[in-house]
Design brief:
Helix content is 26%, strand content 42%. Strands 4-3-2-1-5 form a five-stranded antiparallel β-sheet. β3 and β4 form a beta hairpin.
């Protein structure tokens, strides 16, 4: 039974990965603010259809975090303090401002 469940889970994971690699996406630079930080990064969205807008991601109840790449983080209290990361997941509940097409 355990091997059968493991095999089934592997097949589901593989199908999900195949779907992700074949899905046409677009990258959008976004600016997100939390009460303490300004975060600018790249959000990967489907090219068309469901969830093709940033607002779809922000309003989605099945997702608690927004995944960004090529991220710059700056403190709102002291903009000279900040850091860069190749990847950052930011909690949706902490976002107080969001906009697309932020300058790089």
């Amino acid at each position: 039974m355990h091997n059968r469940v493991s095999t089934l889970m592997f097949q589901i994971e593989r199908q999900s990965a195949d779907t992700l690699t074949t899905m046409e996406t677009r990258e959008s630079r976004v600016l997100l603010e939390t009460p303490r930080y300004r975060v600018v990064g790249t959000l990967r969205l489907p090219r068309d259809g469901y969830r093709s807008r940033m607002t779809d991601y922000l309003n989605s109840n099945d997702r608690d975090f927004i995944a960004l790449t090529d991220v710059e983080v700056r403190s709102l209290d002291d903009p000279t303090q900040g850091f860069s990361r190749p990847f950052l997941a930011i909690s949706r509940q902490h976002i107080v401002l969001a906009t697309e097409d932020a300058p790089a």
